[in-house]
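Honest question from a wet-lab person: if I give you the sequences of every part of a complex, can you actually get the arrangement of the whole thing, not just the pieces? Trying it with mine:
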Amino acid sequence: MEHSQEFILFLVTLNQMITVSVVLIFAGLAGLFSERSGIFDIGLEGKMLISAFFAAAVSYETGNVWIGMLGGIAASMVFAVIHGVTSITFRGNQLISGVALNFLASGLTVVLGNAWYQKGGQTPALSGAARFHPIELPFADALRDVPLLGPIYADVISGHKPLVYVAFALVPLTWWILFRTRFGLRLRAVGENPASVDTAGISVIRLRFAAVLIAGVLCGMAGAYLSTSQGAAFGREMTAGRGYIALAALIFAKWRPWYLLMATLLFGLLEAISNLFPNIDVFGLFTIPVQFTQALPYILTVVILAGFVGKAVPPRAGGEPYVKER
Amino acid sequence: MERMPRWADVFLVPFINLLLAFFVSGLVVLAVGEDPLKAVWIMLKGSLGSTAGLGYTLYYATNYIFTGLAVAVAFHARLFNIGGEGQATIAGVGVALALLAVNWPHWMLALPFAIIGAGAFGAFWASIPAYLQAKRGSHIVITTIMFNFIAAAVMGYLLNGPLKSPKTQNAESLPFPPGTHLPTAHELLAPLGIEFSKSAPLNVSFLLALLCAVLVFLLLWRTRLGYAIRAFGQSESAARYAGISSVKIIMITMLISGALAGMLAINVVMGEQGRLIKEFVEGAGFVGIAVALMGRSHPFGIVLAAILFGMLTQGGFELLWEMPNLSKEMVLVIQALIILFTGALDNMVRAPLERLFLYLNRKKRAA
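Yes, you can. This is the full assembly:
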């Protein structure tokens, strides 16, 4: 079936949107778990970066992308443990700890990458079983000829790499965990009023560590996706501020999973647009510079934070170390 | 009763933190198969061993004094200004506009206007997050982070559009008039008969940085406003009860902080580059956080910490040449560990030390 140029462009944009949103979904969900438990996490960026590096390095060395992903998750978990120890055990400043971890990741990945591969911080290119490959969903080809929905199913929804589907499946799972399980209820309570959770005889420290570690796993998957799925090698600073965009999406979504999906897709769409159409000409009147599209997620987040369009209220105990009353 | 003597609080704790950071850094150096002690020696020699090295060290230190002071002033009001990077970036635009507007005959005439440009633009970029924090309660850490990215986009737009030099392909502004050239250490010291390297970018901005450190000290500990800022930082509710307006303090503190971060543009854009380029801040805004933490938010400590970080930055470039297995990003690792140990893991060192001093005191009293 023939399609118009515009329709194909539309499909390509949507496809790109999904591809670039995945990192934001993983990282956003990581931030969601951590911040809902009262631990600020501006170290999403660093955890993703270190994971992206180790996922690529381990994949390259073992030739197996799944082992590589585990390597990335392990590296991200180490960072998560450091963040947990500083901010929960030693009651340090969570923001400063996050800043430090981001620096540590951007330094360490280049230092180790250079020492191991001598490629200016890059890892060797991954191929074959050392990276993820697209999956065709059932009937994708058969349904392609169904008008409108056929091509959307075949070209937008089908044909992504495995982690893409994992990311989208994690959104309802996160919602279910947070809002339908006892663990989720306690997790949210510990972010709002840790003293009451403590009074009920539940360990604040254990709950917060659990949340921070879950964030570590999710950031690890985000990083592994970047270097072994979206890309085919690690490049220095390859997260390029996506950890902060994920943070912005989290605020934009007011710390709720379904809204987070919407926000990450919106920010993903903006990234796809700025990749595909650098300067947008508006009816020949003026052009929207590409920098504006790139800055839009940040601008939107500031507007939301300022409470001009609905108010974003963070978890009440966020950022404050819990001290048992004696 | 004090838990710890003052000297332990001011010197011993940061010193132990620093040692821990260096120790872990040493492990990283070992891990890539180089000798940590040799690396220290190369860095020391590279940063202090020649006037060229020293000139670079103090040039970087100048940047870090400005950004360190910016973070520290905000810290005193319990505000965490992570936006030094963006504020300095936008301040660069202010400097460029001031210097390109007039064909300046002499740097002494140009400098005050460049300072006003840098200060005003830097303060402006800090004022929006400050206003949103003071009036709308949006978290200043998040907004200043967002403003760093917005600043980078603004800069990208300006240098590819309105401010772009028509003479080159690069994203940079026209060169500033020759009259705006700030005297370098070489030019300043030559008449005194002191031979200083010609290649080092150290310039009069260093003196401006020291002046700023003195002014910040006077502001914080010798004026009514400084008292209000510190009182606000100690306890917002107590300060409000004493009739101090929280909106006013947040705004003024952040304006000062932004202007200080903006001064970095004097050193780099006016002093070194002579034109506006992209990404001239090079992470100095973030290093300011480490410097302020190390220096315990005190101007004297900040100057010392800034020089230490200047040595690390310059020494890191030397490592690149002499140790092929080690990259200059090693400096980032060291910085990160210093931030981690002095900033976030402070309690790990402080709590056992406090216990130790309590124990010693008790023994003394018993005796």
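Two things worth pointing out. The mean pLDDT of chain B is 91. The longest helix of chain B spans residues 107-136.
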